[in-house]
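Entry 14. Ran structure prediction on the chain below.
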Amino acid sequence: MLHTVATGTALLVSLAATAAVPSSASAPTPRRVAVEIVSANGSGCPAGSTRVSTSPAGKSFKITYEEFTASAGPGAAALDFRKNCQLALDVSLPKGWTWAISRIVSTGSADLRDGATGMQAASYYWSGHSGTSGRIGNRFTGPLSGRWQRSNRIAKKELRYLPCGERRYLNVNFELRVRAGSATGRNWLAMDTTSGSDFHVVWKRC
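Output, structure tokens:
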């Protein structure tokens, strides 16, 4: 069942002109786009626990979470080793332009003991267009304790632009997994309110 979050509150995301180089120097790229979380579904994002915000630099939008932790070992439930969060984002673009995700920077925290492993992955696509999907993934190996950051740049040939002239949801699915392996004690991998994922974009004229 989908849980609606932040409904009706569109956030204006300022995007720097340097995000993409237009074909003509006299035609700068747009600087603002409206992004709204329409719905959230999954064990990693209970109702009201996910937020979207603008970055201080004005080059990306950021998703943060309050209850997104995968864990394994003593005290963890059988299904806690995997957590996911499926988001539907309503993106309003200026006429004559489209954009694609060019880089995803994810940060979080972890406590993985020797012998344990973790995984963080994200897939995304424009609703109704199977050819606009993309995926990134990161693996973790214990021992690892404290904060972590992973930056995944999307290759130019892998950029997934919204088809020009269409209004579609951007669907993003994040996943965290933890395997205790030979490790003792509880092991966990998290994304939270002090971390999350920054989505950087590039513009293209239609």
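The CA atoms of residues 23 and 206 lie 11 Å apart. Will compare against last week's run tomorrow.
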